[in-house]
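Subject: two folds for Thursday's group meeting

Dear M.,

Sorry for the delay on this. The cluster queue was jammed most of the week, so I only got both jobs back this morning. I'm pasting them in the order they finished. Each block is the input sequence followed by the predicted structure tokens. Could you check whether the formatting survives your parser before we put anything on slides? The first protein is the one we discussed after the seminar.
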Amino acid sequence: MRFEKNYIDGMNKTFFRFFFIGLATVFFAACSTSTVSSDDEDLESSSSAESSSATEKSIYEAVEESGLYTTKDSVAAYLCKFDKLPANYVGKNEGKKIYESKTGNTFEKWNFNPWTTINVMIGGDVFGNNEGLLPEGSYHEADVDYSGANRGTKRLVYQPDYVIYYTSDHYENFTKLDIR
């Protein structure tokens, strides 16, 4: 009888060990895969262990020409892949016209979030580089990562030859992005 009890206890312990190891394996495998967010088809990585170049590469491969993108990484990848902004981007003048036609209000200033108010992102206008913080050249700008009640401070500043800079503080500091 004692042998049967020890045998059953040993089997139960073995079963639970393998069960918990399997459960942990499934949990960690699920947390380390890249996912595609259905919200505006923007791409995110759910693993902080992935290298940024691997994440950017998967975003670059995943962006589609017909997609609507709003985040730094997805818009930068789109620019590199298609040499233009996504279709949800309009210049400032066009954004002002859309605002007036959709709201019936006269445009005064960018004190609203264009993405949530009129379903567009602002981008494509010339960036002057007046402070001279970037190398000499011709640049355009695009808003990214709107959050809150206005356009925010996050921008991509780019050239057609896949040179893209990111600023999170409205042109005070720049980081060069390496998408390709």
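Second protein, same layout:
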Amino acid sequence: MRCSQTMRYLSLAAALCLPVAARAQFTSQAPVGPLKNLSLLKPPSNSKVAIVVFEDLGCPHCAVAHPIELQAAAQTHVPIERYDLPIPSHVWTYEGAVCARYIQNRISPSLANQFRTDLFAAQMRISSREDVLQFTQSWLQRHGKQMPFVVDPDGSLAKQVDSDVELGRRLNVSWTPTIVVVTDHQQQVICGANAQGGDPREIIPVVEAALAHVQSQPQRIKHTEGSH
């Protein structure tokens, strides 16, 4: 099984070495596939464009896309709205998502990004809830933090993960990662419309096209909503 997963990583890395066929545009075309209700996805109130990501921390495709997402956000100065979608057959990823949410909410969002990066890199060494809890404890110690005896005593972090999963159901998200570039009124799917997965390298050109699009539009009063 581990050998098979290694081959999956190698095949994914090889695929990303291929050139992007054409510079992507922000067309806001309806996705071909099961996704629906994408108008529910909005950028935060302080941004006109966002990169929306549904991911599973045990998904090798998500691990490949993750650094590309971070690079795109840094290069375009556009936020990532990240949602956890733990795959039920991945026995440890729900607990991993709760741990990531603990670091995000109780310590630092930027540190949570680094935690996700390192957890993605450690996927092949984790196979149980105990493994991910031990990984999190050691990781926090290396970063000068102490893991509490109970990470989520009142269940509030788990409820946030459950809320992400419920949103994924409403959108009929069937693949991870699902990546969508959104403005207030338009959405374009990068990955997740079908089993082929899409190409996360299209994030940057699509975001740049979306920024150009919103800058060319008349100013609208934006409704302020609670951020994710």
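Two things I noticed about the second structure. The two ends are 36 Å apart (CA to CA). The longest helix spans residues 60-76.

Cheers,
T.
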